[in-house]
Amino acid sequence: MKTSMRPTIGRLDTLRDxxxxxxxxxxxxxxxxxxxPTPLAEAFVRHDVYRLLLPHDLAGSAVDPLDYLQLIExxxxxxxxxxxxxxxxxxxxxxxxxLPPERSRKMFADPDCCIAGAYAPIGRGIxxxxxxxxxxxxxxxxxxxxxxxxxxxxTVGESGRMNGLxxxxxxxxxxxxxxxxTSGMRGTGSSEYEVENLFVPAGMTFQMFMGxxxxxxxxxxxxxxxxxxxxATVAVGIALGSIEALTELAAxxxxxxxxxxxxxxxxxxxxxxxxxxxxxxxxxxxxxxxxDIWAAVGGGxxxxxxxxxxxxxxxxxAAEASVEAVDLCCRAAGGxxxxxxxxxxxxxxxxxxxxxxxxxxxxxxxDAGRARLGLPPLSPTF
Length: 382
Hints:
Elements: H1 12-33, H2 38-46, H3 65-76, H4 80-91, H5 101-107, E1 115-128, E2 131-141, E3 149-156, E4 165-170, E5 175-177, E6 191-201, E7 205-206, H6 225-250, H7 266-298, H8 305-333, H9 344-354, H10 362-372
Parallel strand pairs: 1-3
Antiparallel strand pairs: 1-2, 2-6, 3-4, 4-7, 5-6
Helix pairs in contact: 1-2, 3-4, 3-6, 4-6, 6-7, 6-8, 6-9, 7-8, 8-9, 8-10
């Protein structure tokens, strides 16, 4: 086993400071390369980030999920793409809880155990002795350049299983496609991938957020709503970074002769206050929803439909509020919002790109509304 620098809660500040510094230095490089820059990829492994949430018996650090969300928010203030890769990379460790522990221990024995891919069951599977033969084409594989493993979802048979299955297989098994040419979140490397007639052992399949975890650690009891909170937190951090940038710009931007400086303009004053209110309230609402779920898990209680509904609507609301906050900051910044030398244009691109994630689209809020009105949610991972 490789030696690693495994962070504990007391060392999260060191991890945060180094990654934030590197993100600031290399975010333009990430945009150009369309993936996580090498210095950041190496720092992720050096700080053993992919096992942060895992329990100690899986070589993890067992970091509290609320501390994890705070880490993501802090990095997103600096660069959305870096925060996204960090968020997805750490969160993907939760797949370990759905595999037989002996398999998980081998897969997560080293700190470079990154998983990329999409668990949506859009592949095709055929039952064969000992497992399945799977073919398919998937997308949104954030961090694929750092990954050792790919996750992929598929249905089985002509009619398919309604909820589908997920599986893990080595990255080299798949063909990685150069498809990540985007406006926002450019540095995440979220490309597409495909495979044909891959044999998947039955022991490597599971139903994420629907099946029962095979590991007893509390972290593996978190519902699908936790993933929604993870990606929404990136949007919250981006918005907070925009507010900081507007505050700094207002201190130095002077108006034309006879006109007030940016700091003295009523619209700038309104914008910074409104953006702060939107972001802080959305973030606090989101954090409280996850804290309630985590408290239920810690107390050995079942996670109620009401708690899941709370987290789902809080996630969409926090993301939408953050996008509105970014837009306000960009409008107030004026022409400076167009310049790559200022962070506004990147924040605008990234915040709007995040809303393309299906768990933050209107359908997710509609599902929360269905639950509030006494109707069953449509999402199987609600």
